[in-house]
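S.,

As promised, the calcium ion run. Input:
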Amino acid sequence: MTVDQHEWLAFAKSIALKAGDMIVAFREENAFQKDYKLGHELVTSADLAVDQLLVSSLAEKYPTHGIMSEESFPNLDLGSQDENVPVWVIDPIDGTVNFAHGHKHVAVSIGLYLGGERILGVVNAPFLGECFWALRGQGAYCNDAKLSVSGAIDLRNALVATGFPYVKKDIATILARVSNVLHACQDIRRNGSAALDLCWVAAGRLDAYFESVKPWDMAAGALIAEEAGAYVGHYASTQNEWPEVVDGESLLVSTPELCEKLCVLLK
Ligand code: 2AM
Ligand code: CA
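Predicted complex:
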């Protein structure tokens, strides 16, 4: 691991913690307004302010790096980035609906990839006092505690998380998948933050997670899950030109023993 990577991680953690404090303050002071992107997708003034903090901090510290962020640079062409340039992929608030409804399952997500590899991930859950992080090849942590997946091998006893998109046009297919899994596993959770679902698989609190999400929802959590020993892949082939490591479509994350059984149910 290079000196650069340790320094990038330390900086990512520092801004994720600052962003987390900002999110808590916005809610304690009830100082945010709601709006709807494309008429249905909730965004708050807190999402925009935290996005600004993260993007401006990264751009100032690393002017040559690429940045994809949900609120200000969602359309960065990930497929045509120079492979020698590190690219930050960030979600200022993952779990916006939870945030706006007073729930605690909310996270700041900051991932970095380089040359087609996930390099680091930080997922800070400020209302829960948990900061998850990982550096490629160095394991995954929650605060100072090392993480590892549950080791579940039997689908019948597995707790599986998923989520539903803002746009409901494919909901029948999604519900058919949920039905297949629900019949085979112990139970299903819909926690509302993809980044935290990935971290909870890493921590062994969930045995699996599947959903189609955007790069910023999964870029950081994918490395955290991978470094904790999870299978991180796709239950179906995807159409995107994005590098596979930040492609959240048809995402499946699970203990290594459960992935094939789940793939069969999700096809
Ligand atoms: P967001 O909070 O950044 O929008 C949960 O299923 C994941 O998908 C979250 O990471 C959330 O990201 C996103 N998401 C997409 N559609 C959603 C919906 N209808 N309700 C809540 N979250 C949604
Ligand atoms: Ca978001």
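The radius of gyration is 17 Å. DSSP finds seven helices and 14 strands in the chain.

- D.
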